[in-house]
């Protein structure tokens, strides 16, 4: 998975040994430092709960990351995300809460994503979602960022493209092998 937003470039490679867990590496390059700051980490994603209903699905994930950040003299950091989503074939919602601990600093962030599918496709068709992502980062001077985006996926491929209210591009893609 590759993500590019107003804060960072992020590459996440992971392997899922079973339906409830994935283990991987994450490499991030932070934009606020002229693309010179890198962090590398290992990440464990764990499915805490899943509810399949006749016309919807809901998930709750724990994501634990431990890594080294060269912004602060190669010191160790830990990050924990609690992520949830609920979707039907027409409506999508997701929330992510992040807690980052580094040295004596504790940083919190959260994001909310809402989406709607303008049409319903059959299995194997190209699926389109119109979405808006709202990020809240209390430690930033611009505490709230709103990013409208379009999500396209077909089979094992997903692409998201958008532009934030600050004019920053968002480009994400996922390939599942």
The gist of it:
With 177 residues, the chain is an all-beta fold.
Termini separation comes to 11 Å
What is the count of helical runs? 0
Number of strands: 12
As a whole number of angstroms, the C-alpha radius of gyration is 17 Å
Strand order of the largest sheet: 1-2-3-4-5-6-7-8-9-10-11-12
Structural class: mainly beta
Write down the secondary-structure element order.
EEEEEEEEEEEE
What is the overall pLDDT average? 91
Strand content: over 45%
- The dominant shape is globular
The proportion of residues forming helix, as a percent range, comes to under 10%
The main β sheet shows up as: 12 strands, antiparallel, barrel
Stretches where pLDDT is under 50 for at least 5 consecutive residues are none
Task: Give a description of the structure.
Helices cover 0% and strands 71% of the residues. By secondary structure, it is mostly beta strands. A twelve-stranded antiparallel beta barrel has the order 1-2-3-4-5-6-7-8-9-10-11-12. Strand 2 and strand 3 (21-30) form a beta hairpin. It is globular. The model has no long low-confidence stretch (mean pLDDT 91).
């Amino acid at each position: 998975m590759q993500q590019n937003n107003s804060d960072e470039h992020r590459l996440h490679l992971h392997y899922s040994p079973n339906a409830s867990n994935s283990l991987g590496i994450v490499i991030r390059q932070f934009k606020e430092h002229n693309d010179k700051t890198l962090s590398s980490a290992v990440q464990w994603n764990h499915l805490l709960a899943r509810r399949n209903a006749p016309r919807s699905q809901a998930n709750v994930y724990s994501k634990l990351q431990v890594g080294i950040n060269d912004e602060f003299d190669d010191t160790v950091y830990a990050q924990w995300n609690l992520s949830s989503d609920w979707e039907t074939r027409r409506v999508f919602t997701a929330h992510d809460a992040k807690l980052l601990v580094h040295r004596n600093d504790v940083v919190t962030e959260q994001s909310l994503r809402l989406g709607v599918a303008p049409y319903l496709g059959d299995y194997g068709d190209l699926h389109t979602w119109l979405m808006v992502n709202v990020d809240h980062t209390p430690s930033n001077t611009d505490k709230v960022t709103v990013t409208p985006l379009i999500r396209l996926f077909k089979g094992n491929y997903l692409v998201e493209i958008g532009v934030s209210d600050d004019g920053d591009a968002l480009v994400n893609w996922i390939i599942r092998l």
